[in-house]
Amino acid sequence: MATKKMNKKTESVAVPSVTCAEMQQGIIDRLHKGLATDKNKANNKAWWNATCLAVNELVFEKLTKTHHNHAGKDTRAVNYLSLEFLMGRLLSNNLQNLQVFKVTEEALKGLGKDLYELCDEEPDMALGNGGLGRLAACFIDSLATLGYPAIGYGIHYEHGLFKQEFQDGRQIERPDTWREYGNPWEICRPESIQLIPLYGYVETLYDPTEGAKKIWHAGQKLKGVPWDIPIVGYGAKTVNILRLWESRASEAFDWDVFNAGGYVDSQAEKSRAETVSKVLYPNDSTDAGKELRLIQQYFFCACSVKDILRRFKRANSDWNELPKKVAIQLNDTHPTMAIPELMRILIDLEGLDWDFAWDICQKTFAYTNHTLLPEALEKWSVGLFEKVLPRHLEIIYEINAQFLKNVVEKKWPGDDQKKAKLSIIEESDNRMVRMANLCVITAYKVNGVAAVHSELVKTDLFPEFHELFPTKLVNVTNGVTPRRWLKTCNPGLATLLDETIGDDWVLNLDKLKGILPKATDSKFQQRFMDIKKQNKVEMAKIIKETTGVEVSVDAIFDVQIKRLHEYKRQQLNLIHILTLYKRLLENPDYDMVPRVFLFGAKAAPGYHMAKEIIFALNKIADKVNNDTRIKDKLKVVFLPNYRVSLAEKMFPAADISEQISTAGLEASGTGNMKFSLNGALTVGTMDGANIEMAEEIGEQHMFIFGLSVDEVKDLKTKGYKPYDYYYNNPELKSVLDWLDSDFFTPGHPGLLSDIKRSLLEWGDEYLCLADYASYLEAHQKIDALYRDQAAWAEKAILNAGAMGKFNSDRSIEDYASKIWKLKKFPIA
Ligand code: Z15
């Protein structure tokens, strides 16, 4: 990557804490003393490593200081429990947040090294799937930046999200090996290891004075080893930690087997134990239901809850204090097991009575819901539960019995239907534990992630719970961190902002409003568009390097990057592309602004239709990109292995942001915000956070199309008939029929037919055909607007300037005030 132009201005807010010479010395020192090499021998990986180690020297000091302040004052903290943290790369981000990026760039330049190139050496920390995992990463950045005492808890997966390759257009998954050669950012904390029981049976003892006492005799014990990653807030005052648990075999168990002469068995046992944190489950918004996943979830929750209680007990002896000192946020239902685990510890190990323990739990947990999709709502079979976590199942039964008797029966006496619906246990042939019900019953607050989503949580997902607990369900609209998603990834635009409105927009994104009056200023428009052009040039290079395809930067870069899922409707984008292609073939003079359609998306390995859509897009790309008849008016590029570090290059280069989910199904979306922040215009449905973006930007400055949430509901109740759209729209019909031919897969007709089938025979669950005409119209308007570059620039500026609300700092302030009742703890 090319060296970015140097900015005259110094770093914002504070002067750099190190000089150029000190930074050079630090890096050289780490090369010598940390890595036993020198500047003549070292390759770029070693230079990157040495730079990280030099950065750590600045971070560790602040980490210790923050820790002493928080522990010394026994402050209330939030514990953010998430099975996913999609961190991406840390070097550039840490340098920015420490405000030493420029000085480090200069230092390395003096040593003959390019900082951007070194940053590109870092493997992504891809411990998450998509939006939910990336949201957790943005949130811990904001928590540290705002000076809130917080700790993120997660799993130290050996393999993060799989690496995606294409073979003949089909997705192939390869293991991700982010830690193969070590990770300079993490610190192992063996002093905080936890032992985690699993399997076995429950013994009931009757004590004449205290009644029944439960003892869980575990069949196996896992060791949880914590790895800490420092999380540097912008301005570097607070440095919090992300604590990730790794599973190991516990020595105790090993030795028994070993002594019995079972060396080989003990090794098998060891590898079974290490399997628990081995790999991230690659399903985004679908439930896997596998035994290992349940163990993974429980292992993680048990380690985290024990760690939270260990810290609590260091400064407290009264359990009444627990909810005052500890807030636990559950990121979706994945960490639900923390609830029965806390109950178990309080009752079985600490000797509290049920009511007291339950009261504490209800004041400690809050839960975030991220989806309305039924296939994403986690359920575990009772049989599996009984085998793996027998004591927890008993506790869940008791929570459920009391809830049905004391709450549901009181409100709706004798109503068995209500009880069946609200019960934590789904009574079917295979009885299931409904994790979301357990969360809603326990949590003191439940939030959705965008206004429309939170309303639907109340009216459609949990209406009875809403009647029972009218103040429990609330909204906190998602946000993204402007440090990573603007300052770091788009230095050109960041510099323009610094010069136009001052450099404190990084900490107060509402300041972006300051560029709105400049939207019609032609000089400002020019600079804004020049920056976009430059970012497109960089992107074009990456496209050429990774796919061999040449694209023109004068074309509209139309980008859809997100997980591949039918509800996100990449297939609607696909049929639009086919429509344009057909028009061009039928009329080579067809008048359109050249377009480059860019995709990035991973499909869950077991998700057939998602993989078919990837395959089809790749086959269409092959054909379109090599068709000389259409005179380069159309290009289609599916970039392999979409990930955070690639996203950082794509958002700044986009002209059009595709946010085209079926209304009511995208809980929020966060990519939508990143695009707009970087000056792309949105083509989108009235769904998720798009609705609030339209409120801020003005609908007239976006390309809104398609059915609304209410219209979707109406159409579904009336009975949706995709064939009606097919037969009534000849262009749509011809495009879909094209998929049955061998045009895109020469010699193999029918290879793309499943896409057509899903849209017709299988019922088009996501209403692509219903929104097709309106989507086409929106794209016509895009074309027309782009021909007027000044008008386009004006809208792009109005978009970026309106993004203040979608800052994760604002989201965190909402959580802190509405849910956590958390106070800042400034570190001097
Ligand atoms: C995930 O990434 C999201 C929801 C889920 O239920 C799971 Cl399992 C994973 C996404 C939503 O689809 C997206 O709309 C939202 O912006 C994101 O979570 C963060 O809230």
TrEMBL record:
Q: Which PROSITE patterns match?
A: PHOSPHORYLASE
Pfam families hit by this protein:
Phosphorylase (PF00343)
- According to its UniProt record, which reaction does this protein catalyse? [(1->4)-alpha-D-glucosyl](n) + phosphate = [(1->4)-alpha-D-glucosyl](n-1) + alpha-D-glucose 1-phosphate
What keywords were assigned to this record? Answer: Carbohydrate metabolism, Glycosyltransferase, Pyridoxal phosphate, Transferase
Please state what class of enzyme this protein is.
transferase
Where does the record locate the signal sequence feature?
none
Q: Which cofactor does it need?
A: pyridoxal 5'-phosphate
* Entry EC no(s): 2.4.1.1
Report the InterPro entries cross-referenced here: Glycg_phsphrylas, Glyco_trans_35, Pyridoxal_P_attach_site
Q: Which GO terms describe its molecular function?
A: 1,4-alpha-oligoglucan phosphorylase activity
UniProt lists the family membership as follows: Belongs to the glycogen phosphorylase family.
Function (record text) = Allosteric enzyme that catalyzes the rate-limiting step in glycogen catabolism, the phosphorolytic cleavage of glycogen to produce glucose-1-phosphate, and plays a central role in maintaining cellular and organismal glucose homeostasis.
Instruction: State the protein's name.
Output: Alpha-1,4 glucan phosphorylase
